[in-house]
Amino acid sequence: MHVRYYRDQDFNSLSQIEQKAFGEGAYSNYMLKMMLKSPGSFTMVVEDNSVLYGYATMEKLNLISVDIESIAIIPEQHGHGLGSLLIKAMEIEAKKRGYEDVVLEVREKNSGAINFYKNHGYIISELISGYYNLSYLGSVNAFRMTKHL
Ligand SMILES: CC(C)(COP(=O)(O)OP(=O)(O)OC[C@H]1O[C@@H](n2cnc3c(N)ncnc32)[C@H](O)[C@@H]1OP(=O)(O)O)[C@@H](O)C(=O)NCCC(=O)NCCS
Known about the structure:
The chain is α+β, with helices and mostly antiparallel strands. The chain has a single domain, classed as 3-Layer(aba) Sandwich (Aminopeptidase), CATH 3.40.630.30. 30% of the residues lie in helices and 41% in strands. A 7-stranded mixed sheet has the order 1-2-3-4-5-7-6, with helices on both faces. Strand 3 (51-60) and strand 4 form a beta hairpin. It binds coenzyme A (COA). Residues 21-22, 71-73, 78-84, 106, 110, 112-113, 115-116, 119 line the site of coenzyme A.
């Protein structure tokens, strides 16, 4: 299992991971392409024997802060350390690029992900009312979490 940079030919696998991990809440392929091509973003994938198991994208917020736009591991592999491998690699890359802080937003009720981030040193800095507006859920609150690298 290793982490490497995303390549264009990974798109279909990445899109399937997104669908499996987020279900109804998954980004559309159009949104994914926008995120992946955004000039201030970088994406890494977890791969084993040419099969992708997860991906994460970070996007520049300002000169010192970067935002985790998305992180997802296929559900069959949750809890086996792949998310940890990926977030650590992303943080190292962010630091190399000169960022000092990582920021993210997570649904208030996504306790699995919130625990995952807490395990990795992220702290809740804010509760944002109605941050997400999801077609299948309506208005949903989010926590903003931060970590100083
Ligand atoms: C959040 C996510 C990326 C973590 O990846 P992972 O490979 O399951 O995480 P790891 O195995 O490295 O770490 C496990 C920790 O994550 C948390 N966790 C989250 N979801 C979990 C699950 N379904 N099963 C087990 N642990 C889970 C636990 O706190 C666990 O900590 P513990 O080992 O002390 O119990 C992954 O669960 C995922 O893709 N979730 C769906 C998409 C999502 O919600 N992304 C975040 C959006 S902000």
